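Hi L.,

As promised, Copper transport protein:
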Amino acid sequence: MMHMTFYWGRYVTILFDSWKTDSWLSYALSLLACLVVSIFYQYLENRRIRLKLFTAGIPSSTAAPEIETPLLRRKLAGERARLGVKVAGSVLFGVSSAIGYLLMLAVMSFNGGVFLAIVLGLAIGHFIFRNEGEAEASVVVDSSCACA
């Protein structure tokens, strides 16, 4: 039976019928997995923002100083490079969206521990990867996920 309100307990089904917890150890490992995936979600979002900053020509605060190479810059400005960056950005967006929706569905298990693990993971990931300064704030990043 699916819960329709938040509950606290070690018996939870997360995303799949095969991912059921029946002991405190399996519950703790499941919460740890939710925490790690939430942190990884923020890491992917950071990589996507960095790629967007790179394509916009805005220097990253963590990037190495740019070396002036006019001949290489012309080559990077070619159609193939732009297409590769667009494909990479689209793949990052797709994977990030999929993980975001899976995290949302995991929260919809209505287990309090799962909810706290995911929110804590998102907060830790934001603190580690996405709290780096004003350069990020100047870029509008499109995201279809509610937890972005």
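Residues 35 and 117 are 5 Å apart (CA to CA).

Thanks again for sending the construct details.

K.
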